[in-house]
């Protein structure tokens, strides 16, 4: 029997005076892959930011229950410790901070939260070697400053590498396919698929059906004006590819 | 500033006409002077200093510094402390404590110079002279530790360094205030002479706690010499560094770097002047300010390329991060160029940490405090990484980040 991972109920949020999410409902069980699609400005990236805890957005109504706990007031770092992960659409460059130092700090901060000793250097490096292989991340990039001077594809691989290191329960991939050529897309998708288990779940946010050829979703949701207006299986994505979104928008307006 | 309870002996040896009520050192600096415009000295002025020079520290381990090896010269409250020092005999080095010169240099020579130079010469209590003979390369750093450990103690000290032809030296200077002393003041002067084709690196670390430290520094470079100074300012009520780097010979390399991290109303001021008197030299300046919780930073760097000093390459930069709205930085990079064939640039930036970067780190499970620390580390790393000694580097970082 599948176990509930996250339940979002009637979620409303705004940034400044603009309402973005307007009563969003979504349930995700462990072991599932969900795709969220939708036209520009429908609230896809907002959803990922709100789930990760970006306080630029104010949650005005509804709830986010993650592993039995209400998290809408929780700090981003605590959400991470509990198993939330967001792969950014635009990964941020952190000059002067090496990728390795950054990841070691991340793991140790989590260990500290759970009262576990810092990870020994040898064990950490072994883990880095294993996990970076998953997405074929160049050795040199591991020692360079976080994302600084990385190509678009390298940045996205680095996101999946971080995901592998942190081993989250819920991974949200925000437009991870944008800016990737087909070879890089395959590598990234392959990495994501290898990390999939019956204990975790993945949310793929994307504009295009293309990525879903490689990361096959169990559910496809269409987001429009801050609400999910249609849910289907992977065939919905193919239908959207052919017909666009307009027919759904008209439907929902009725 | 009022100085009382002055050490009787030193008073007698000094100019007997010296009147305590009127120190006759020239007018006390005010913010009306450009050089002191951003550094008010109220906090210093209201203290009744003394210069009774006693020892309190029993062991260097009681101070928060890493174990220091090799030659160690320790001054405490303005006097040489032989118990804390380790004067190993190095054949390449001539070390002397210039008792005679302490007095003789007073009034005449120092007239017209600034107040704190006058104060230093007039009440000088210890002058250390270190010479490295020609044609030696000393890898291990020579350590100079200058401690203030007595409340309201005024310590006037000098350190003269001469590096002779073709020799190379590395010096670490520690200016420390013990955590139990308040309102002490180290008014120090460094004089450096670099003979031709010599090289000197000074790592200077200032951790004064609740005390003051001013350093007046004069560096003269002869041809083909190299001078590098890295100044790390971690704590103190007011820290002021006044560096004059005078390049007299061709093909010299001069480098002034610094990280200053004032916090909680501390005020750290770096004034630098690099004088390029002759052609074909290079100078680099890189100061980083990390300022938080009502801290105040000042950077005023001046590069002067004198007439006919052609083919000079001089680069100066000052980057600052303000961690909150109560913190301040006054940054004034200056270039004065009187030659026409030079490559010079200067620049200053002041900003905050990127909110998006902070959010990114937090989504990876790194707390706000640790994220800011990590970004600070990234910001100052460019200067810190110039030190190759891992233990020293970690120590400096820890104190600068106040971890």
Question: What's the structural blueprint in terms of helices and strands?
Answer:
The complex is a heterodimer of chains A (about 250) and B (about 400).
Chain A: E1 4-15, E2 18-29, E3 33-37, H1 44-52, E4 58-66, E5 69-70, H2 76-82, E6 84-87, E7 94-98, H3 99-113, H4 121-134, H5 139-143, E8 145-146, H6 152-166, E9 170-174, H7 182-195, E10 201-205, E11 219-224, E12 227-232, H8 234-243, H9 246-253
Parallel strand pairs in A: 3-10, 3-11, 6-9, 9-10
Antiparallel strand pairs in A: 1-2, 1-4, 4-5, 7-8, 11-12
Helix pairs in contact in A: 4-6, 6-7
Chain B: E1 2-3, H1 8-13, H2 42-45, E2 48-49, E3 72-76, E4 79-80, E5 93-97, H3 99-104, H4 107-110, H5 115-122, E6 126-132, E7 142-148, E8 154-163, E9 168-177, E10 185-194, E11 199-207, E12 212-221, E13 226-235, E14 238-247, E15 253-260, E16 267-276, E17 282-291, E18 296-305, E19 313-322, E20 328-337, E21 343-351, H6 355-363, H7 368-384, H8 390-401
Parallel strand pairs in B: 1-2, 3-7, 6-8, 7-9, 8-10, 9-11, 10-12, 11-13, 12-14, 13-15, 14-16, 15-17, 16-18, 17-19, 18-20, 19-21
Antiparallel strand pairs in B: 3-4, 5-6
Helix pairs in contact in B: 7-8
- Which band does the percent of strand residues of chain A land in? 25-35%
User: Which overall shape of chain B is indicated by the principal axes computed on the Cα atoms?
Assistant: globular
Low-pLDDT regions of chain B = 1-21, 102-112
Radius of gyration of chain A: 18 Å
DSSP summary: helix tally of chain A = 9
Determine the mean pLDDT of chain A. Answer: 92
Structural class of chain B, please?
A: alpha/beta
Strand order of the largest sheet of chain B: 4-3-7-9-11-13-15-17-19-21
- Which sequence of SSEs, written as H and E, runs from N to C of chain A? EEEHEEHEEHHHEHEHEEEHH
Radius of gyration of chain B: 21 Å
Largest interface: A-B, 32 and 22 residues
Average pLDDT number of chain B: 89
Secondary-structure element series of chain B: EHHEEEEHHHEEEEEEEEEEEEEEEEHHH
